[in-house]
Design a protein that fits this description.
Residues 1-63 form the Retrovirus-related Pol polyprotein from transposon TNT 1-94-like beta-barrel domain. The chain has 108 residues and is mainly beta. The protein has helices spanning 58-63, 99-103; strands at residues 8-20, 26-37, 40-48, 66-70, 74-79, 84-91, 94-95.
Length: 108
């Protein structure tokens, strides 16, 4: 999911329902598109009005032929040749990564 429509290519505008967050806030899913990270495309990323962060599921990375591995304090995303493409740490019981910060140093 993303709150920034401009990040999506091949966008399909279609009301797909709502999503409810832990603070009981409800937001509309207003369509979907593809999210391009250099040479990798993550398909069917939902556009959620007002969402402040990009949220991806492990399935979306796996559908792009990437492998996701979790450890106690870190996680890794690598290609099928075993080359690490993205890595970051767990904080506050949530695994997060900043795509913008990693774009400059990532081979992806």
């Amino acid at each position: 999911m993303t709150g920034d429509r401009s990040q999506l290519i091949n966008f399909v505008q279609k009301f797909l329902g709502t999503v409810k967050f832990g603070n009981d806030h409800v937001a509309k899913i207003m369509g979907y598109g593809d999210y391009q990270i250099r040479n990798v495309t993550i398909s069917r990323v939902y556009y959620v009005e007002g969402l402040g962060h990009n949220l991806f599921s492990v399935r979306q990375f796996c559908d792009s032929d990437l492998e996701v591995a979790f450890r106690q304090h870190t996680f890794f995303i690598r290609n099928l040749e075993g080359v690490y493409l993205l890595t970051d740490s767990r904080g506050n019981n949530l695994y997060t990564l900043s795509l913008q910060d990693m774009m400059a140093s990532s081979p992806i």
